Amino acid sequence: MESFDLVVLGSGPGGYVCAIRAAQLGLKTALIEKDDTLGGTCLNVGCIPSKAMLESSELVHAANAEFAKHGITVGQLSFDLTKMLERKRGIVKQLTDGIGMLMKKNEITLFRGRGVLRGAGKVGVTSESGISEVQAKAICLAMGSVPVELPFMKFDGRFIVSSTEALGFESVPKRFVVVGAGAVGLELGSVWNRLGAEVTVVEMLPNVTPFADVAAAKMLQRVLKSQGLSFRFGAKVTGAEVTGNEVRVTLQNQDNKAEEIVCDRVLVSVGRKACIDTAELDVVGVAVKNGKVVIDDHFQTNVPGIYAIGDLVRGPMLAHKASEEAVAVAEILAGKPGHVNYNAIPNVVYTNPELAQVGITEEQAKEIGVPYKVGKYFYKSNGRAKSLGAEDGFVKIIAHSETDRLLGAHIIGARASELIGELVVGMEFQAAAEDIARTTHAHPSLGEIIKEAALAVDKMAIHG
Ligand SMILES: Cc1cc2nc3c(=O)[nH]c(=O)nc-3n(C[C@H](O)[C@H](O)[C@H](O)COP(=O)(O)OP(=O)(O)OC[C@H]3O[C@@H](n4cnc5c(N)ncnc54)[C@H](O)[C@@H]3O)c2cc1C
Predict the structure, then answer these.
(1) 39 C-alpha to center of ligand 1: Å?
(2) Best probe residue, ligand 1, of 143, 188, 347, 355 (max atoms within 8 Å of C-beta)
(3) Which of left, alpha, beta for 52 (phi over 0: left; psi -120 to 50: alpha)?
(4) Which residue of the set 70, 400, 441, 443 is catalytic?
């Protein structure tokens, strides 16, 4: 039986990164993946294909709504959805093939099949050709997550779908209902809205993106509404019935009255659940609580030598969080101090405008009773934002009122996903708001909005 220092189950941004870092550190490493392609949810049906479709649909929107403002005439606009989907698939293929190349480059042994726990230090690989077994000094579970299905509206892959199918409708649905106003629902709702669908988002809570700064979430809601998305807040879906080519979605609205929305497709995006049932965890008794694998502060499960990371464990379900945990596990196994700073994990919604945040919200600061001050600056006051035609948005910085240390930052606006990086670095380095405020930012740039917001923390904004 072949023996490895580390066997990783799952090739998402958790698993493949863990394997690469372990191999770099000299550990003999194997990776097991049950799907045909590497890269997990993120590369195949998550982060990457969604951003490809967001970009294509954004260009359609720009040509429709923005070009004329620049004096550009395009005549009758049309788009080829098949080509758009091909482009998306091409990007996914390049990246997933790239993971295969990285496995070879780092001399990681790749097993195709489902990894299952077989006993102390033993992992089985089950595939069509049978079962093989490998020996592992350490095991890292990185089996990720799958979409949550509502028991009263089961996925049928065609009319009632998860994000996987909603990334690749072969024609634009005329009427599209999205259940859940989190990142995935808003991103995919935006894609199909920009391509011409009538989109209704049904959300149980009173706002979009419940994890976000309330003012930022409200602004996002307002702008998305102006783009044509309609919202039903405080509404609970109760069922869906497919008749012919239509879906009748029933819901209990905010006045507790039953309502029906007829549509062509419905996306259920109410969250994801950890894949705790693919690897026979009970064979060795890996503990699971509230649907997630339980780990200690060093990512180890209750079974010595078995670690777990990514969507499978506590914390936000984000690709970069999975990758940071992956590196930490590999480094711990190599005798280094692996660590993840959970206070500095950015979270982004790639709508237009984008919403990005790191650290605590103002609401959380109040709740935990930390003394804080706020600096805010608006995109509309920034020259670069004006020239981009991107005046919706603001940067809000929350700093400790005594130490001035950054506690959180919230950006809604163009390129927030890129801008947040500066504030994440600031938080990693335990920067004060004044450190950001006194740093020279290129002019004209959106970065100046961050500088002005940091200056505003101590009422020093120059253009505010
Ligand atoms: C539409 C959508 C958009 C998203 N956008 C973003 C975004 O913009 N930014 C972001 O940070 N996150 C985003 N996410 C979330 C992100 O994709 C996940 O957080 C991330 O992929 C989790 O990584 P992971 O390695 O833990 O698991 P996964 O990526 O889910 O990978 C797990 C892998 O394990 C394999 N597997 C499962 N069981 C076994 C087994 N027993 N043996 C072998 N293999 C197994 C699976 O086939 C899969 O390949 C998005 C998700 C979706 C659905």
Answers:
(1) 8
(2) 143
(3) alpha
(4) 443
Nearest CA to ligand 1 atom 52: 46
Q: From atom 17 of ligand 1, which residue's Cα is the shortest distance away?
A: 42
Q: pTM, whole model, 2 decimals?
A: 0.97
72 burial type by CB count under 10 A (0-12 exposed, 13-18 middle, 19+ buried)? exposed
Backbone φ and ψ of 118, nearest 5°: -120, -5
Joined together, the tokens standing for residue 155 give 């996925």
Q: Helix 81-105 and helix 15-24: axis angle, to 10°?
A: 30
Q: Give the nearest ligand 1 atom to 163 CA.
A: 1
Q: Is beta strand 175-179 parallel, antiparallel or unpaired with respect to 372-378?
A: unpaired
Check if 443 is active-site.
yes
- Candidates 8, 42, 162: which one to mutate for ligand 1, based on the most atoms within 8 Å of Cβ? 42
Per-residue pLDDT of the chain (464 residues; tens, 9 = 90+): 899 999 999 999 999 999 999 999 999 999 999 999 999 999 999 999 999 999 999 999 999 999 999 999 999 999 999 999 999 999 999 999 999 999 999 999 999 999 999 988 999 999 888 899 999 999 999 999 999 999 999 999 999 999 999 999 999 999 999 999 999 999 999 999 999 999 999 999 999 998 999 999 999 999 999 999 999 999 999 999 999 999 999 999 999 999 999 999 999 999 999 999 999 999 999 999 999 999 999 999 999 999 999 999 999 999 999 999 999 999 999 999 999 999 999 999 999 999 999 999 999 999 999 999 999 999 999 999 999 999 999 999 999 999 999 999 999 999 999 999 999 999 999 999 999 999 999 999 999 999 999 999 999 999 97
Q: Which helix (H) or strand (E) holds 20?
A: helix 15-24
